[in-house]
Amino acid sequence: MDKPLGFPLMSEVMGSLHDFKKGEGAEIEKVLKKKVPYLSFDFERYAGNKGTMLGSSLLGDDPTVLEHVKQIVNSEDFGDNEESRSLRLLVERLDAIRIHNTLSAEDSILFAKAIHNETDRGATTILDASAIRFTEMPRQLVREALKRAYDKAEGEGDARTKLYDLLITLSNFEELLSDFFIGFFTKNPTAQKRYFYLSWLFWMYLRFQEAKVKNELGNSFYGLLEEMSDFDLITFNYTRFSRCVTNGQATYFHGDSESMIDFRTRRMKGVEHLKDTRELKLHFDQMQPEFGATPSVVLPGLVPPLIMKPLMASEYLDWWYRAAKLIEEAELIVIAGYSFSFPDEHFNDLIRKRASGAKFLVIDPYWDSVCLNLPRVLDETATPESLYESGIECRRMGRILFARADSKDLSSQALSALISLA
Asked: Which residues in 327-352 are b (16+ Cβ under 10 Å) and which e?
């Protein structure tokens, strides 16, 4: 929902943060970095290491990663030498593997029947993407190409090649935050420092971007929501825009950009006073974080999408309870931009157990993953039926109506028609 307003997808966040800390966020980032001495992290090293796991990244749960990488390698700026053609071929073959690796709902049912285990229809792929590794030659190709891309970018100041964009794209920011967030509960000071630095950098970036587009909601799905009435909203976005279109009533499942938490006391505070660069610098300058077995730090009020969410503050219990009640009472649940992947199993379980009486309308331009995942969550086995509404390709499966569309391109009339059809 935030993409049309200039916010990156999660597969693009690493590149946006890299640019932000070198550009308009540089002054504040320097103050922040002083608070985490001996910080052993940089974007490029992390992204380069992830680059050698290109197969797992592109065949994973998030289809937007592969789509973004395909755009990069197929652009004219990517080049036409042996290296670029080799990488283009590699991505093309991975795309073909992804297509043939995907199991349809009918495939999954057939497999379950074949092994006499019809209660378990959770298989969505043939191969486990997390276990895929390149053989030596493709691995060396990717490693060397990305290393040269980084060296060139560093040598030319702000110069950025398409290959460098590819390097940054391969890093999933929420996955990275989740890995480091665990450090606060395993008493790992290195992970704690990395999370402190990255979460506040991300929070700063959100605040700067929000200030730029606060008057442009009409050009996004939020503008469409403002035309609708009588709905409740649960959001996974961190921006304040959901609160704007619901008169403050939106339920923020993963936290927001308007709060921070004192990890020592678990008290949550608002950030209304942090309105400009001067106040942000003063805020970070006054911090005295302590890391280790008993960390004493102030963190942004964001919750990485972990399967098991450690409790940072009791307010989150209130938000999750409210979300559960809304799901339980809903007659129709409209899903936009959410794939029901396994890392969000906490929310998936609410849908599985609380939405027994609801119908679903799912709006997604890249619907392959959600067309597999949501039926699995709901244990829906109906045969898919293809249809069209308002020129939009749809697929009905029991009480679920999938619409292959980008939410930002929908008119209020088309959305109303889809809701009526569901």
From this structure: beebeebbbbbbbbbebbbbbbebbb
First to last CA, the chain: 21
Structure tokens at 255: 């936290």
**Other CB atoms within 10 Å distance of the CB of residue 399:** 17
Band of residue 395 on the pLDDT scale cut at 50, 70, 90? very high
How large is the greatest C-alpha to C-alpha distance in the chain, in angstroms? 65
What is the crossing angle of helices 173-181 and 13-22, to 10°? 80
Residue 197's pLDDT band (cuts 50, 70, 90): very high
Side chain identity, residue 62: D
Burial of 108 (0-12, 13-18, 19+ CB in 10 A): buried
Q: What mean pLDDT is predicted for residues 48-55?
A: 62
- Token readout for 13 is 């966040």
- The answer to whether residues 289 and 35 touch, using CB atoms and an 8 Å cutoff, is yes
**Two tokens, residue 324:** 């559960």
Residue type, 199: S
